[in-house]
């Protein structure tokens, strides 16, 4: 059993550091690939096509960088088999930030890829990135009672609901195709954001952003009432646009502290919230150095200077020596709740790999006494927790694991199935050594 998540490989790293990792070519340079949909923020079509083996297959590209729209149209003219679409976003501060692929194969299977990398060379070469690969899913069969959309798995329903929110004609055929497949093998929950005002009186209120995450936590995550110590919520991202203290503490932190048995597990203390972000020294010493790191580690100095007094206590450095990514700065975004069991072993209550950074545009902002949430951007992530595998009351533990260190195998001496989660950073976390050390973009 696996979460089917991994890190991307990098030409800057050793073979050992790339163990268990994937490249873009691993995903799409395949003889058996017969069509694909690429959904991303930044797209370099020439780079994309250089990594596709059969260049005549039908390809749909949905991109979000408005400034490059004309360039993409020009690049796309070389490929008559390519359709290009751009979602409409009304708020000028909103973006189409989702990064995903839908791949179709000769054996009549389909696969969803959710990732954190833009479709541009540098994202796949000089940054730490994450990838989720769904199991290959096959056509529904009548004998399984899955021939109609009424028998869709939650994963399928959520994926279709998200793609319909684009309201793009170029995705219509893809949505119809997805509904023909059995997605029940996917042990994950999609956490997405869609631009707009989502009101409590509407069915879409719990579909997107912070409210979607809160709903999933309340429905699926159970913490052990008397075996949950030193709990942490670990937020790790690459961009932190101005985030007011009130929004961070009252909306983000409270949402991520939710869990199913909260009322009965009164002995569980509130989690300690940690935000992993490189220090100036860490970024300067990285492969990309201070200047280039500022191209994708987007935290403005003016915003940090304004908020550092309350924000510094939450900040932890990027430490990834055991994970093999110490000098490869993070573009990956992960949100994780950990705790220690009675034996002092670290366990993961839930884990989210997402395109969403720590921002109101990505996660949304509650308004009108939490009766509506306003979201500016498109985002997509995949969520994991033990209950997704919990069949026949079998005990399941999610455990942090770095493929570089086989000594991390953890035998607890009980009949517990362990599912490994490849975290991009090391545990335990390390605080910024002193205030005002957070890396920010040069003024």
UniProtKB/TrEMBL annotation:
Record: residues binding substrate: 99, 333
Gene Ontology CC terms, in alphabetical order: nucleus
Gene3D superfamilies with a match to the protein in the record: Endonuclease Chain A
GO biological process: DNA repair
Molecular function terms from GO: 3'-tyrosyl-DNA phosphodiesterase activity; double-stranded DNA binding; exonuclease activity; single-stranded DNA binding
Domain of life: Eukaryota
Protein name: Tyrosyl-DNA phosphodiesterase
Pfam families (alphabetical): Tyr-DNA_phospho
Compartments it resides in: Nucleus
Family as reported in the entry's similarity comment: Belongs to the tyrosyl-DNA phosphodiesterase family.
Major location category of this protein: nucleus
UniProt xrefs under InterPro entries: Tdp1
Record-annotated active site: 97 (nucleophile), 331 (proton donor/acceptor)
This protein's UniProt keywords: DNA damage, DNA repair, Exonuclease, Hydrolase, Nuclease, Nucleus
Site residues by UniProt (Interaction with DNA): 359
């Amino acid at each position: 059993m696996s979460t089917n998540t991994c890190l991307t490989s990098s030409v800057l790293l050793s073979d050992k550091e790339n163990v268990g990792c994937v490249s873009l070519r691993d995903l799409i340079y395949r003889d058996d690939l017969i069509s694909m949909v690429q959904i991303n923020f930044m797209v370099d079509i020439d780079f994309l096509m250089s990594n596709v083996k059969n260049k005549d297959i039908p390809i749909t590209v949905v991109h979000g960088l408005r400034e490059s729209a004309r360039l993409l149209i020009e690049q796309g003219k070389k490929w008559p088999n390519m359709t290009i679409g751009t979602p409409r976003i009304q708020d000028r501060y909103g973006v189409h930030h989702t990064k995903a692929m839908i791949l179709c194969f000769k054996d009549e299977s389909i696969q969803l890829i959710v990732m954190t990398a833009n479709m541009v060379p540098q994202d796949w070469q000089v940054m730490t990135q994450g990838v989720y690969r769904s199991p290959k899913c096959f056509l529904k069969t009548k004998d399984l009672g899955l021939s109609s959309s009424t028998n869709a798995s939650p994963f399928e329903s959520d994926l279709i609901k998200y793609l319909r929110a684009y309201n793009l004609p170029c995705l219509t055929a893809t949505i119809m195709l997805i509904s023909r497949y059995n997605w029940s093998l996917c042990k994950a929950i999609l956490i997405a954001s869609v631009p707009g005002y989502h009101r409590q009186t509407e069915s879409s209120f719990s579909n997107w952003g912070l409210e979607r995450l809160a709903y999933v936590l309340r429905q699926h995550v159970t913490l052990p009432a008397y075996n949950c110590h030193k709990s942490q919520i670990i937020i790790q991202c690459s961009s932190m646009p101005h985030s007011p203290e009130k929004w961070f503490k009252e909306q983000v932190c409270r949402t991520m502290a939710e869990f199913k048995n909260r009322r009965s597990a009164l002995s569980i203390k509130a989690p300690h919230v940690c935000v992993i972000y490189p220090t100036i020294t860490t970024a300067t010493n990285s492969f990309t150095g201070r200047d280039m790191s500022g191209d994708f580690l987007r935290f403005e100095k003016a915003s940090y200077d304004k908020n550092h007094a309350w924000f510094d206590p939450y900040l932890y450095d990027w430490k990834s020596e055991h994970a093999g990514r110490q000098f490869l700065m993070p573009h990956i975004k992960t949100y994780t709740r950990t705790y220690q069991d009675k034996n002092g072993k670290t366990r993961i209550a839930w884990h989210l790999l997402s395109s969403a950074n720590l921002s109101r545009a990505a996660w949304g902002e509650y308004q009108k006494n939490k009766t509506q949430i306003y979201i500016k951007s498109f985002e997509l992530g995949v969520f994991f927790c033990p209950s997704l595998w919990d069949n026949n009351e079998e005990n399941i533990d999610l455990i942090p694991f770095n493929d570089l260190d086989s000594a991390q195998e953890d035998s607890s001496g009980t009949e517990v199935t362990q599912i490994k989660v490849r975290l991009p950073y090391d545990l335990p976390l390390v605080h910024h050594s002193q205030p005002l050390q957070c890396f920010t973009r040069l003024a």
